[in-house]
């Protein structure tokens, strides 16, 4: 069976961090995962030296023709949000999209997809500094300025820098399931899962004491998902008023406390579904949903599929 080919674009004035995240995720061999890991290649989209931020020079072994074979194409930022990409590159990307390839951008890379017309009528995000410029230049795009990443199925866009890593881990979870995604995050020593709808930054930094209390509460909730939780009980544990807790959850995660908790529970369900021996009633209890009906409702709402379909796709071999 042909391996999934991930191709990263390279160009002069390359964004080193975003490019490095892509290489780290997909170029390394991961035999310990016991899955068909990706093939990875770097494609030069223009002639001449490829200089990257920090005085680095990159040698890309492949020409743009490789894009005709790519299953996933990643644009690790674009060198200048005000500079139109080469027309030939846009033609290659349109052709890849037409044949079903998955296209992903990090940070200013969204301007390449936008210039190709591949985001018209869709939601997209980018670094918060570029969001207004993107919306003004491409009014057909529904810009989500606060999101870490936006997944439209075939086209996925991420905000700046580290949010790109969240998006790349999201791709791994999509392709190989929650358990493999968590193992890769563990190897990278990063949080295993951040929802795309979480806020990019806090409009008002929290005081150090407040931040510490919220962080401890999040850790405790993740460790005790099966317990019944209400806004009042969470606020009491964090030594905050319910109003303060609501505000800080929204600022820190982009969700209210109960919606955040439901999403954490769905993430737990995804991993547990990959063990075929655990019945759905038991999963519902352990994750804190209480009933199969509640689990099914929230799982379908957030995962856009049924627990049974998810299990069938990602069940442990």
Automatic annotation (TrEMBL):
InterPro entries: Class_I_gatase-like (IPR029062), DJ-1/PfpI (IPR002818), Homeodomain-like_sf (IPR009057), HTH_AraC (IPR018060), HTH_AraC-typ_CS (IPR018062), INH-QAR (IPR052158). Keywords: DNA-binding, Transcription, Transcription regulation. Gene3D superfamilies: 3.40.50.880, Homeodomain-like (1.10.10.60). Pfam families: DJ-1_PfpI (PF01965), HTH_18 (PF12833). SMART domains: HTH_ARAC. GO terms for molecular function: DNA-binding transcription factor activity; sequence-specific DNA binding. It comes from the Bacteria. Residues 215-313 form the HTH araC/xylS-type domain. PANTHER family: ARAC-FAMILY TRANSCRIPTIONAL REGULATOR (PTHR43130), HTH-TYPE TRANSCRIPTIONAL REGULATOR RV1931C (PTHR43130:SF3). This is Transcriptional regulator FtrA. It comes from Duganella margarita.
